[in-house]
């Protein structure tokens, strides 16, 4: 396994898919999903040119940060964020992609204000309305964004989703299309501190269809690092 070669192959694929849709590959951010990977593997991914590194677990993130694993690339938090871990993530990550509740928005805003910073976030949407998954229900998007627009210390930069299990059928693409529609609908509305810059969806097995559907940020783990 060669991490740099894997990233080059993914970049080539992104270029081809984006070009077919009249987009430039530079419009699609490649986030290396680094759960369970060691610091050296993360460094290799950064050296090979990923746009950011995404972590799912606060403790693992802190351990790798202490080893300088993220030097040279932005750090995103992409896993479920527990409220008691907010203080360990705000200000440490350039982007928190997985904000999924009123309580989290409030706590992140309070922590950011106390640090004198503005924390960039994405709102995670449970586009498949799956009871076992995190994320706001799509029908609550306006309510959540209205709250976020009035919360100091945060900037909402877009939406994130982990759609139902991808199996390369029409249903999977349906969820990507539904996310794009929600993203576009929100984009035309005017909320303070909200700008729909990023639609983060698509992973190792689904990023091609996600980009075709309009994603401009993909979170890729096994296709970069190999199977866990």
Question: Would you spell out the secondary-structure blueprint of this structure?
Answer:
Blueprint: H1 3-20, E1 29-33, H2 39-47, E2 52-55, H3 58-66, E3 75-77, H4 86-89, E4 95-99, H5 102-115, E5 119-125, H6 141-149, E6 154-161, H7 170-187, E7 194-200, H8 207-213, E8 217-220, H9 222-225
Parallel strand pairs: 1-2, 1-8, 2-3, 3-4, 4-5, 5-6, 6-7
Written account of the structure:
- This protein has 228 residues and is α/β, with parallel strands linked by helices.
- The chain has a single domain (3-221), classed as Alanine racemase (TIM Barrel, Alpha-Beta Barrel), CATH 3.20.20.10.
- Helices cover 40% and strands 19% of the residues.
- The protein contains nine helices and eight strands.
- The protein has an eight-stranded parallel beta sheet with strand order 7-6-5-4-3-2-1-8.
- The longest helix has 18 residues, at 3-20.
- The two termini are 12 Å apart.
- 44% of the residues are buried.
């Amino acid at each position: 396994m060669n991490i740099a070669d894997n990233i080059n192959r993914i970049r080539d694929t992104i270029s081809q898919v984006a070009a077919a849709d009249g987009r430039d590959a530079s419009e699609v951010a490649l986030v290396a999903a680094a759960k369970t990977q060691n610091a050296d593997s993360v460094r290799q991914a950064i050296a090979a040119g990923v746009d950011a590194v995404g972590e799912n677990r606060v403790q693992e993130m802190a351990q790798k940060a202490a080893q300088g694993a993220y030097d040279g690339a932005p750090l995103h938090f992409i896993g479920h964020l527990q409220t008691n871990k907010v203080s360990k993530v705000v200000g440490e990550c350039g982007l928190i992609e997985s904000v999924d509740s009123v309580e989290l928005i409030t706590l992140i805003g309070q922590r950011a204000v106390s640090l004198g910073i503005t924390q960039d976030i994405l709102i995670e949407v449970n586009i498949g309305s799956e009871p076992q998954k995190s994320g706001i229900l799509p029908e609550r998007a306006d309510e959540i964004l209205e709250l976020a627009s009035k919360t100091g210390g945060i900037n909402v930069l877009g939406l994130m989703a982990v759609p139902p299990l991808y199996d390369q059928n029409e249903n999977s693409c349906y969820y990507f299309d539904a996310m794009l529609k929600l993203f576009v609908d929100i984009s035309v509305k005017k909320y303070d501190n909200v700008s729909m810059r990023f639609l983060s969806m698509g992973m190792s097995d689904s990023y091609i269809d996600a980009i075709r559907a309009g994603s401009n940020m993909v979170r890729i783990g096994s296709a970069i690092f190999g199977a866990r």
